[in-house]
Design brief:
By secondary structure, the chain is an alpha+beta fold. It has 3 domains: about 55 residues, no CATH class; about 50 residues; about 80 residues, no CATH class. About 25% of the residues lie in helices and about 20% in strands. The protein has a 5-stranded antiparallel sheet with strand order 4-7-8-9-10.
Length: about 210
């Protein structure tokens, strides 16, 4: 259901470069790097999932502020019916986006500043191509891959997808999904240390979408 709504938004407005969220579902999980099936889908389309620190809503202050403004103008008190409530929301969107000046926008309205993304949405996902120096592994249904002759658990959220493995030393390899660094495989302890930077690419280059 959530994915369906994102598809509708992406078709209308195009694809963003980054989506910032909190750490709740469906944006995050307890899996590798805290990523969910939804955020892996974003990565596949070239969108960088960026999460605030747990318990720090001030890191997404603008988003929290619009919630407060929306509730104040439309739901205190709430309308007597869903139809009337929707009319309030529609009127608020028109006023907020097209007429109301915003101090952060130098007293312009959002509609005066907004430009749609040039990155168009496609329902057909492109194939993933990893650089030649990486080993490519398919993630099995239970989240495992086989690497260096042994089984290694990654995440069930990537079941059926292909990851790239970049060996950087005798004791460690980087694990990539598309151009997103998932973490560092420790060959001695045989586990994955999630990436702190979660960067989209590295000096050696991440994957390409064809």
């Amino acid at each position: 259901m959530v994915k369906m709504h994102f598809e509708r938004v992406f078709r209308e407005y195009g694809l963003p470069e980054v989506i910032r969220t909190d750490n709740g579902t469906p944006f995050a999980s307890r899996g590798l790097g805290g990523l969910s099936r939804l955020s892996y889908w974003w990565i596949r389309m070239g969108i960088h999932p960026e999460r605030i620190k747990p318990g720090h809503p001030e890191q997404n202050g603008r988003h929290e502020r619009i919630h407060k403004t929306l509730k104040y103008h439309t739901a205190k008190p709430p309308a007597k019916s869903l139809v009337q409530q929707q009319r309030r929301f529609n009127a608020f969107c028109s006023e907020y986006n097209e007429h109301r000046p915003h101090e952060a926008l130098e007293m312009r309205s959002p509609s005066q500043c907004y430009r749609p993304s040039k990155r168009e949405f496609s329902s057909r996902l492109s194939q993933i191509s990893y650089p030649d120096h990486m080993q490519v592994r398919r993630v099995y249904p239970h989240g495992d891959i086989y690497y260096l002759g042994k089984r290694l658990f990654t995440t069930e959220s990537l079941a059926g997808e292909y990851v790239g493995i970049e060996q950087v030393s005798e004791d460690a390899s980087r694990l990539w999904y598309c151009g997103y660094l998932l973490g560092l495989i420790d060959h001695r302890k045989w586990w994955i240390r999630p990436s702190r930077s979660r960067s989209l690419s590295s000096a050696s280059g991440g994957a390409k979408r064809l």
